[in-house]
Amino acid sequence: MTQTNSLSEAWVAEPMGRVAAPIREQVIAALRQAILDFQLKPGQRLVERELIEQLGVSRTTIREALRELASEGLVTVVPQRGAMVSAPSLDEAMDLYEIRAALESLVVKHFVERASDDEVRALAATVEELAQVSETTDDVRAILAAKDKFYGVLIPGARSAALQQLIDGIRARVQMLRATSLSNPGRPVEVVAELRAVAEAIARRDADSASELCAAHVRKAAMTALHALQETDADE
Amino acid sequence: MTQTNSLSEAWVAEPMGRVAAPIREQVIAALRQAILDFQLKPGQRLVERELIEQLGVSRTTIREALRELASEGLVTVVPQRGAMVSAPSLDEAMDLYEIRAALESLVVKHFVERASDDEVRALAATVEELAQVSETTDDVRAILAAKDKFYGVLIPGARSAALQQLIDGIRARVQMLRATSLSNPGRPVEVVAELRAVAEAIARRDADSASELCAAHVRKAAMTALHALQETDADE
DNA sequence: ACCGTATGATTGTCCGACAATCAGGCCTAT
DNA sequence: ATAGGCCTGATTGTCGGACAATCATACGGT
């Protein structure tokens, strides 16, 4: 299997073979994953020639991939100096969380208005699945994956491509902070309760309550994450 | 820049004073302008080789520029088929307007919290300037320019780079609809009244009222634009 | 008239080249 | 010794050409 995607393995020294999907997409996916997994650390420079050697693709492809990631906000390019992994400041992180709250409120409102009963049930199911996971493990990664399933039902159910695109971008940019937030003991339990409340409001087709509960959830996650970050900064 | 390319005759004549933005940026700006001015019409295919000839730059540059514009939503690329000028459907346009309402609400809230008194006064001044313009001319282009000045004060005053980036993207994507909306007789007068109300609420530092008024303004603009568009579709 | 194929157009990707720019060390003059 | 300027290496920005893969369409045989 020459073209196993480097997702689960170390991202280094894994030349990618030619599979059906455009190579550029694979490069983008690999770099995105590496950034979100902290294999590429915030602030680290991304030198084109190094990426060429490690990924085994041409400079053209690398450059297009880097620009794509830049438009997603995951990397920052400074003219004449190249790209580096974005390192959002506290202020920027807070901004991102507020934007996320506003957009996810809108998503929830649209979900209430547009989603089928099946989708509503599926959403409730993901919450219960999340509850199961958060009771049986402390693995932040597993909990994050379960939460992503929730959003995997919620966001498409809102039937808005633009909204989906924007939220995906924002969520990627705060991914690191999400992990920090959920590492806080007791936080997963609260998360389950908050999401359950959102799902119930949705089941009642109560758009206003649901979107407000969702916004409150995001804001609370923000507080937790930022608080933890400030302590980290103070320690080091 | 090493060779004689002719993005515009003007800057070729410039001896050497300007350090010059990267050519890619000039290409992006030129294409963006052409799209927003309808020189490139929605749905029109953007063939790389034609752009090369018309702009006098290499394919590398063109491709990077197209991907940038794609990430802004102004062009749509379908794999193996190339890029075309985006042509948002009615549903998509409505989505964009709702997102814009949510984000601009947030901008106004932040403006109230963060902008200086000088900025508040400058904002009010742009509204009065807009009132002047809309009374003395029917030129939609001039009115749009005046409105852009309003946003030119409002958005930076919110002190959020992420928010600014997102709103710029959304606003570009509905630019065509904005023109349609303002062409509606009587609409400019209403716009002035609505923005005046927003500015006054901001002057009172009443964040909740201001953001709600702003959202209402965007929603009303959406109604006007979409209504006009539906008629257009019905006529033709 | 139907269907498969030849053909052309266009994109995706690679390669190599060179100027422009930036960072840092080195050298000189005061 | 220090300030300032120069040289050099590393890296990006842009160019041109090349080729396979893929899509669109016209063509030809049946």
UniProtKB/TrEMBL annotation, chains A, B:
GO MF entries: DNA binding; DNA-binding transcription factor activity
Alphabetic keyword roster: DNA-binding, Transcription, Transcription regulation
Residues passing through the membrane, by range: none
Source species of the chain: Amnibacterium flavum
The organism's place on the tree of life at top rank: Bacteria
The keyword NADP appears for this protein: no
Annotated InterPro entries: GntR_C, TF_FadR/GntR_C, Tscrpt_reg_HTH_GntR, WH-like_DNA-bd_sf, WH_DNA-bd_sf
Domain HTH gntR-type: 21-88
Protein name: GntR family transcriptional regulator
